[in-house]
Amino acid sequence: MRSYTFEDELYKDRNRSFRKAVRAPKKNQRYLACETDPDNLEDIDENAAVKPEIEYSHKAPERTKYNWKQFLPWAPETKGYPARHPIDDCGFIPLMLLSWISPIMKKGFKKPLELSDLGKLSRKDSAAVNYRRLHKFWTEEVKLKGIEEASIGKTLFRTARTRVILASLLFLFSLLASFIGPAFLVPRILRFVEEKTDPVEKGIILVIGLMISEIARSWIQSLTFFTNMRTGARARAMVWTMVYNKMSRLKNAGDKSIGELVNICASDAQRVFEAFAFGPFALGGPVALIIVISYTTYILGPSALLGCFIFLIMFPIQGAVGQYSGKFRGKAVRITDQRVKLMNEVLSCIKLIKMYAWEKSFTKVIGDIRGKEKTVLGYSSVLQSLNVSMTNAVSTLATVITFIVHVYTGHDLLASQAFTVIAVFNTMIFVFSILPFAIKAMAEAKVSMKRLKSLMKMEEYEPWTTKPEDENVVVEIKSATFGWNEV
To answer: How far is it, in rounded angstroms, from Cα 264 to Cα 240?
Structure first.
């Protein structure tokens, strides 16, 4: 039999409090009704007058490492057991089209949504379940390398490795779908218009094929964003829970103030979310560039290499921008910690400050620190804006230079070649538009990992009590001597 852990009890208390605070309508009782099984953390209140609409068996569905139902086009609903969250009980196509959320959207269109209308959170997205996985891998990392050499970044990646790889592959598929239309269908459509000898049916088929490729690109891209955002939300929940559990076991705050610890929860956890939300898009840049170089060279010859070289030099520029963004992020974080620490001291001693009329002095000090913080954040924003502007203009610049070199070398430029090259170069626009955000997110997350590592290295208190071996015994005292004064 599986024993309870701290996270199990935490998860059960959260659901019990939720049901006491909000009585779900009858339609949602199938989300809340389940057995008091040790393997099922979603227990119910025995005193609650709940009558489920469906009958369910006494055996829970077998849990597996992966939800294989989402690999089917349309997955059948779970029968004979309380239904899970809609996102865990749908197939691949409803997940890609986000149609699983349609009932909630319809209800929100009719009336304002309440907490009970949303049902309970998916178990796979809960902080307790994800933290248990992170804690397991972090313990293994510390035992293998030691606390000084252990890497929180590698541990977080290990917890979400499958989802990150899946998101990267989906993004590559979306790039291939966006490349098929310009590379294979657009030239044939142009030749069909120029020659005017082929039957009309062929033109209709080509246009329909172009439409299907664009729809596939849009759907796969949407699924990629959805997967990344959900992975980022899980990673953020892991970090929050890890920081909370570490803070609750610290002997003392050491060299860290309460404001700095709060800043780790508020700011650094968000940086981890952004790294998982945008990081997988960084893989698409090199792959897309290889495809563009190969195809444009096949269409125009060596003259296309100069335009592709412009795309190529953008990668070291992006790397330099990411490095400087990380430096600005580190400076901003240190100044923010200094400001938050000073604000906490001011609020703690506000009576003393008021008594000696030191308001203006402290206001000036806090204003100066805030001014430094705004200056560093301003530099970072200007750098990011310049980077985004360059990435939006690089496609046009590469196209113009490619055509100039091609014509200047004495080659003829046909309409089918020109429109094909323009369409292929335009496929790089999205890659380079999302690349700055991916590099910035990973650079800032690297700084946040160092701050989290410094927190995890702090000394914890060692409990001097142990739990009794017998589960039925709450308190057990052995070999103790008691003394008391006479009354």
So the answer is: 9
Q: How many Cβ atoms sit within 10 Å of the Cβ of residue 266?
A: 11
481 within domain boundaries: no
HEC sequence for 394-419: HHHHHHHHHHHHHHHCCCCCCHHHHH
In a domain, 357, yes or no: yes
User: Considering its fold, how many domains does the chain have in total?
Assistant: 2
Q: In which domain, by residue range, is 105 found?
A: 6-111
Whether 132 is in a domain gets the answer no
Strand partners, 250: 460
Give the per-residue pLDDT at 31.
Answer: 41
CA 94 to chain centre: 21
How many whole angstroms from its chain centre is CA 312?
Answer: 28
CA proximity to 131, closest of 234, 247, 1: 234
Same domain, 338 and 439: yes
pTM of the model: 0.69
356 phi, psi to nearest 5 deg: -95, 5
Q: What is the C-alpha R_g of the chain?
A: 29
Residue 250: helix, strand or coil by DSSP? strand
Same domain assignment for residues 319 and 443 = yes
Going by C-beta distance under 8 Å and a sequence separation of 6 or more, which residues neighbour residue 209?
181, 185
* Tens digits of residue pLDDT in 427-448: 777 787 787 778 878 888 888 8
Farthest-apart Cα atoms in the chain, separation: 116
The segments of the chain whose pLDDT lies below 50 read: 1-4, 6-7, 10-11, 13-15, 17-62, 80-82
Task: Count CA within 13 A, CB hemisphere, residue 167.
Answer: 25
Query: What CATH number did the domain enclosing 442 receive?
Result: 1.20.1560.10
Helices (H) and strands (E) in the chain, counts: 16, 0
Average confidence score pLDDT of the chain: 77
- What CA–CA distance (Å, rounded) separates 146 from 142? 5
Cβ proximity of 413 and 403 under 8 Å: yes
Provide the β-strand partners of residue 84: none
pLDDT at residue 392, as a whole number: 73
**pLDDT given at position 123:** 80
Kindly state the tokens that stand for 211: 């439409």
- H helical segments located in 121-268: 127-145, 152-159, 161-180, 186-195, 200-248, 258-263
